[in-house]
Predict the structure.
Amino acid sequence: FWIAHRGAGRRAPENTLAAFREGAAQGFRMFECDVKLSADDVAFLLHDSALERTTSGLGTAGERPWVALSQLDAGSWHGARHAGEPLPTLLAIARFVLANGLAVNLEIKPTPGVETRTGDLVACAAAQLWAGSAPAPLLSSFEVLALEAAAAAAPGLPRALLLEELPTGWFETARRLACRAVVTHHSLMDAALARRLHQAGMRALVYTVNDRADLAAMRAAGVDGVITDEVERYADEARAAR
């Protein structure tokens, strides 16, 4: 039920191993993170297409080779305690998750223009890294092209359609892609939508639930999981839900 957003919400630099360690220390057993490709097709974690907000780099991350990206500081923006924290590869995250018996939602976050290639290669990498291990990673994306490619590359891995609105045809798209879940912004979710998803054999997940009032509304709606930044606030509940 409890999914730590980008590793540990706001308590550590997002999408880093430091964040995963912090989220796990707070009692979370499932994590959400963003995965994209370097210019030489290394799968790594970063939310934005641009490097400036969360790293010491400049420009578009997907246009840089991994050897350059691996030298960047992805922690100082958050605070001096995390200075020098590197961008992690998907391989590094997989090792941490598997070694600690954790679950993960890998959001496929393509650089614009390489949606299909990103979905293909991230899914292939995930299938190899988690081969024979459970639980399998959940592959999600806002980008239908990326999810289509992921489905073709690794049909055995569960998929989820991410939605910030409910466009015409979204439900049919989720069914066509054999999604196990739909993940909406919490403002879109209500009991009727959760029930529709459940009746179709899909789980209802929501992002990013931080306030107690929103959490109560999502519980009342019958959702199966919430993605949150507030890992410290909900630490006791996350531990109790193991």
Remarks:
- The CA atoms of residues 148 and 163 lie 15 Å apart.
- The radius of gyration is 17 Å.
- The mean pLDDT is 98.
- DSSP finds nine helices and nine strands in the chain.
